[in-house]
Amino acid sequence: MNPKTLKIQQLNDQFRRQVGADWYMSQGVAELSHEKKLQLLALVINFNLFNEDNDPYGEHDFGQVELDNVRYFWKISYYDKNLEYGSPEPSDPAVTRRVLNIMEASEY
């Protein structure tokens, strides 16, 4: 794995393990009870089942989890600091703002 990809992977893992302001949820997730949302967030935070099928670029930027027989996707995207454009360099936290979206698979 090249050094930039490894850095992106590390930054994504760190970001995913810290629920914060740049985490967003779809309508379906927002409608879950508080308890179910906490369970879902725990699944996302603790996700580590990366493989060639779900992580072909090695960036740890996507995952699928299941809660109560419902599939959910989470995805990390890379933006510039103003959230206007894509990041010019996702491996550089000085110019990148990460955003994590969680949604029911059926909402995709």
Fold and architecture overview:
The protein has three helices and four strands. With 108 residues, the chain is of the alpha+beta class. The protein has one domain. A four-stranded mixed sheet has the order 1-4-3-2. A hairpin with a 2-residue loop joins strand 2 and strand 3. It is globular and about 40 Å long. The protein starts with a helix and ends with a strand.
Highlighted features:
single chain; 4 strands; four-stranded mixed beta sheet; alpha+beta; globular
Q: Layout of SSEs?
A:
Blueprint: H1 3-16, E1 23-25, H2 27-30, H3 34-45, E2 62-67, E3 70-79, E4 97-104
Shape: globular
Strand order of the largest sheet: 1-4-3-2
Low-confidence stretches: none
Helix content: 25-40%
Domain count: 1
Q: What's the total number of strands? A: 4
Largest sheet: 4 strands, mixed
As a percent range, the share of strand residues is 25-35%
Radius of gyration: 14 Å
Query: How many helical stretches?
Result: 3
Summarize the structure.
With 108 residues, the protein is an alpha+beta fold.
